[in-house]
Amino acid sequence: MRGKMRLYFYLNIVILVSILLLVFYMYSVRQIRRKESVYSHLSVNAQESVTEKTVNYRKNDLVVAVVACGDRLRETLNMIKSALMFSKEKLNFIVIAEEKLIDSFKEKLSEWQGFTNHGFFFKVLPLNFPKKDGHEWKMLFKPCAAQRLFLPDILPEVDSLLYMDTDTLFLTPVESVWAYFNKFNKSQMAALAPEHEDPNVGWYNRFAKHPYYGKLGVNSGVMLMNLTRMRTFKWTEYVVPIYKKFKLHITWGDQDIINIIFHYHPGKLFTYSCRYNYRPDHCMYTSICKSAEKDGAAVIHGSRSSFHLEKQPVFRAIYNVFDTFQLGGDVYKDFYQPVETNLDNLEATNCGKVKDVFLKNLRRYFDLDFENT
Ligand SMILES: *[C@@H]1O[C@H](CO)[C@@H](O)[C@H](O)[C@H]1NC(C)=O
Ligand SMILES: *[C@@H]1O[C@H](CO)[C@@H](O)[C@H](O)[C@H]1NC(C)=O
């Protein structure tokens, strides 16, 4: 009798444990499934860099690319922030960064994904130079800017992108720059703004010892690139020989190489106006970018460290407001109003005299531009 009781007792325990194990097993399977489905929504950044490369972009995806090295982390994040503040489309960012910056980018951008209405995707990739002259390329210009010359080869899955220097900021939605792809004719593969408007102060026409595009050259800070067409053209095969031929005459690194290539192939470049790459040069003496006076600057470019130097107070002030603004905050109250106040205080400076250049697109964004409605 006792033996039988004991047997029942053990049998019950075995059954109970089995049931518990089964429940636990089913629960874990569900958890794993759930995790998988979350990750496939997050797509790009949640995966390891090996699989990142296989993510397929669709043809109409808006892709913004930037290359960041050295002390450019914060500046680059501010550019990305400005893109996120005004765009209504889902954006894809490709950040190519020096090894030591990669984790910081991933951390900040993941955090920001929680603060944006439309969501965005991003990839952070390590620098990737042709093995042969890798070191030489890195030294060519300010750290690693030459990386951009190789984008058609290192991003074979991307059709087109908007390349931005780290020291640029959007004052309009990315879409309004991207729209220029539709204006390309069959042969154009990139769009750039002129380096200068006025031959009397232009750099290329006065100093360059190499060929350059058009009358005054082009500035490479804000560049629409149809990578598909650049690959068909075999862009990279032009880069290396041109670099070798002109390396002793090159001052502005990758920008000079771009100028030289388009000097020989002018039909392949679309030029948009200075309002898509508005620099201190456009207002520091007199106002020379008429399209920005009329329609406002779409992208500002703090070339020669203008975002950080007292010499260009308007550029520095706008940069600082972007820097302080927190995504998810009130763009009107915490961004637009401080910009306006700063510019009011700088009316006496040359760039402050044309403050509407900087405010026009923001006002349009907030529907404040009553004159133009
Ligand atoms: C880039 O060029 C290819 C080939 O001409 C074309 O199919 C594609 O639509 C272009 N991309 C954009 C964004 O215009
Ligand atoms: C595209 O436009 C450029 C610049 O206006 C021109 O040189 C080129 O011939 C055009 N190509 C085609 C196919 O129309």
Automatic annotation (TrEMBL):
A GO CC annotation given for this chain: membrane
Claim: Transmembrane helix is one of the keywords in the record: yes
Catalytic activity: 3-O-(beta-D-glucosyl)-L-seryl-[EGF-like domain protein] + UDP-alpha-D-xylose = 3-O-[alpha-D-xylosyl-(1->3)-beta-D-glucosyl]-L-seryl-[EGF-like domain protein] + UDP + H(+)
Protein name, entry field: UDP-D-xylose:beta-D-glucoside alpha-1,3-D-xylosyltransferase
Pfam families: Glyco_transf_8
Family: Belongs to the glycosyltransferase 8 family.
Keywords: Glycoprotein, Glycosyltransferase, Membrane, Signal-anchor, Transferase, Transmembrane, Transmembrane helix
Function: Glycosyltransferase which elongates the O-linked glucose attached to EGF-like repeats in the extracellular domain of Notch proteins by catalyzing the addition of xylose.
Listed transmembrane segments: 7-27
InterPro entries the UniProt entry points to: Glyco_trans_8, Glycosyltransferase_8, Nucleotide-diphossugar_trans
Keyword Transmembrane helix: yes
EC number: 2.4.2.42
Chief location of this protein within or outside the cell: membrane
Cellular compartments annotated: Membrane
Organism of derivation: Hypothenemus hampei (Coffee berry borer)
